Amino acid sequence: MATGTLDRLERILLVVPWLLDHPGATVDEVTQRFGLDRDELAADLDVLGYCGLPGYGGGDLVETAIVGDRVTVRLADFFRRPLRLSLREGVTLLLAARALAAVPGLAESEDLERAAKKLAGVLGVPAGLAIELSGPGDEHLGVVREALDRRLVLRLRYRSRSKSQTTERDVEPWALVGAQGSWYLQGWCRLAGAPRDFRLDRVEGAVIRDEPAELQPAQAPWPPAYEPEEGHTEVVLDLDRSAAWLPDRLVVDALEERGATRRLRLRTSSLEWVARLVLSLTPHVVVVAPAALAERVTELASDTLRRYEAV
Amino acid sequence: MRLAVPIRTLARTGRLPGSARPAAVPCAVVVDRLERLLNLVIALRETRRPLPASEIRERVAGYGQPEGEAFRRMFERDKADLRALGVPVQSGPLDRWDDRLGYRIDPEAYDLPPVRLEPGELAALALALSATGLADRAGAGLAKLEVDAALYGDEPGRGGASWRAPRGEGRAALELELDAPNHLELMEAQLTRTPVRFTYRPLGREAAERIADPHALVHRRGFWYLVAHDHARDARRAFRLDRIVGAVRAAGPSESFPPAPDAGLDDVVPSLPAEGPVLAEVAVTPAIAWQVARRASGGGAPVAGPQDESRTAFRVPVGDPERFVQWALEYGPDLEVLGPADLRTRVVAALGAAAGQERP
Questions:
Q1: B40 and B78 Cβ atoms separated by less than 8 Å
Q2: From the CA of A231, how many Å to the nearest CA of chain B?
Q3: Distance between CA B15 and CA B293 in Å, rounded?
Q4: What is the CATH architecture of B22-110?
Q5: ipTM beyond 0.85?
Q6: Dist CA A70 CA A45 (whole Å)
Q7: What residue spans define the domains of chain B?
Q8: Burial zone of B275 (CB within 10 Å; 0-12 exposed, 13-18 middle, 19+ buried)
Q9: Where in chain A are the domains?
Q10: Cβ-contact B67, B85 below 8 angstroms
């Protein structure tokens, strides 16, 4: 029960300054503001009523009362102020504020900058913290956020990674996610009839349609990673040192160190994007299996090479 | 104002005014401890001189009965728990002539200084915590700031972020994934100017122990970096947090080094060649033109030549040549590098290798 005790202590140290400042506040006001129920409040005040200055005589003890609907605390001047932010709390708040302020084109940015400045003042030392969240595709952030706020359908022109084709599709937006250096829109894709993640740098155009999004957001998995399924193809690649970073960026089943090379196994529903990935990292990545992938890489390379030779 | 019967006199009868059920105390020990901790905070805060442990045992309610060893354990645990909560329990000599240890809470160190956030700032901060998934770790901090604002009459309005933030009710419409091992610990170390010790595994090399003075934390393109003064190299270095193996530990007391000169994004971005960015010319199909246009400097131009009428030419900054070649190859037949010649040669060589031919 030790944690319960400390939670209650923390709560009392938080609520009492407010109660001292709001004499005669109603029970409802207090319970709603601090998210506790009437019994919890009564029990906290009861304990506090036994506390005070050493001596514990008349005038030393805190006076607490709930009369009818009204809450009163007196003789607790030592709890006039909330407890200082712990370093961890201050750091976390500052980090969150600076991070959200770094989102391009966010309406809250100015408020966050001001809040961050005040927080830095409380921490008393300059925080060395820089966060960059702008990147390709962030010109769509505004329209996506508006669609989310208004719960409207978005029409996207999107170039999919798996097929390297641009298609037009209607999406019911669920969430905007910044992760792994990219922006993603998660939502229900009406074209696919399934939940999908759209990387904003692959969005050519996004337009809000005057049509409400009907589906409730599902508990979509995060990160927006590929989830291996039955029937997907296993791919085996050998990487040399220059491509050693690749496993950091993929959902990998296995990674094996083989002297100077690393052998990587993953599963995919689409060989096309793997083929383009391998081509782009030539000669640092070599296809071990399947044969169809190696063939596709060769074919892509030959098709591309033909353009260079035609000149 | 007339105070009605104080609750405590009624509590002994087991009924509280206005309480729906008897406020039966589920476990007397729990309440005793809460009461003792509150009394300890009050006593240490209100004393003008440090209190020796013996005096705490005699005078602070809740400590009276136990024998010496039991008291010592109890007091040590209470002290540690209060400090973990952020209550600044200080210890020091009783006075100039008496070097026995005494304890005290400096009211100035206890009180939250006025922050006075405006309602809009509080709301934005609540959104920031929910978007970054950090509400669990700093919700209590936000609640303190809300009370602070309320003391200045800046009521954030009801139904704002509460003490117990509602969890699991759908999801935030905006999420920022910024979690990284050790990032809060390193930020604390930077703020307190504490040197740190950690095991670092650079890409493709052996892991080794490093000791460094943290200057800044930088988040860029999905990765966190620690910018720090590396003791062994006697120079500023950037370390990627996901390449730190295990936990980061303090390698010295706080305030061990002077405030660092400004550090930031520039310390983790590879420096550009002095002569300015090189531009490459590429010809692309309409299918990918919009994607390339985003990277290009200036608009596109039609490509000269009869067989290329559908293609558009763009000039794009090269940056790192290796990464430029990777970028170009990913588009396959939709993109052709027209120049400069050395980049075109590199692309052709890579394509030749991938096509299984001899390099031209």
A1: yes
A2: 26
A3: 74
A4: Orthogonal Bundle (1.10)
A5: no
A6: 13
A7: 22-110, 112-167, 183-267, 279-354
A8: exposed
A9: 2-79, 87-123, 138-212, 233-310
A10: no
Model confidence over A153-209: pLDDT tens digits?
999 999 877 666 788 999 998 888 888 778 889 888 898 888 888 889 889 899 999
Can the peptide bond before residue A283 be classed as cis, meaning omega within 30 degrees of 0? yes
- DSSP structure class, residue B304: P
Is the pTM value of this prediction over 0.80? no
Amino acid at B285: T
The third-level CATH classification (topology) of the domain covering A138-212 is: SH3 type barrels. (2.30.30)
Q: Where does A233-310 sit in CATH, by number?
A: 3.30.70
Give the span between the Cα atoms of B234 and A264, in whole angstroms.
Answer: 37
Q: Which pairing describes strands B174-176 and A166-179: parallel, antiparallel, or unpaired?
A: parallel
Q: Are B313 and B283 in contact (CB under 8 A)?
A: yes
Which of A16, A27, A81 to probe the B interface (max B CBs under 10 A)?
A81
Q: Say if residue A290 is preceded by a cis peptide, omega within 30 of 0.
A: yes
The tens digit of pLDDT for each residue in B175-204 reads: 888 888 898 899 989 989 999 999 998 876
Instruction: Name the residue facing B31 among A10, A47, A219 (closest C-beta).
Output: A47
Which two three-digit tokens encode residue B24? 């039966």
A166 touches chain B (CB under 8 A): yes
Please give, rounded to a whole number of angstroms, the shortest distance from the CA of A40 to a CA of chain B: 9
**Full DSSP string of B165-205:** ---SSS--SEEE----TTHHHHHHHHHHT--EEEEE--TTS
Q: Which amino acid is at A267?
A: R
- Between positions 189 and 228 of A, the ones with CB within 8 A of B are 201-202, 204, 217, 219-220, 222-223
- B22-110 and B183-267: same fold? no
Fold (CATH) for A2-79: Arc Repressor Mutant, subunit A (1.10.10)
CA separation for the pair B173, B113 (Å, rounded): 33
**Fold annotation for B183-267:** SH3 type barrels. (2.30.30)
With beta carbons less than 8 A apart as the criterion, state whether B356 and A305 touch.
no
Six-digit token pair at A273?
Answer: 């994007």
In whole angstroms, give the CA distance from residue B87 to residue B106: 10
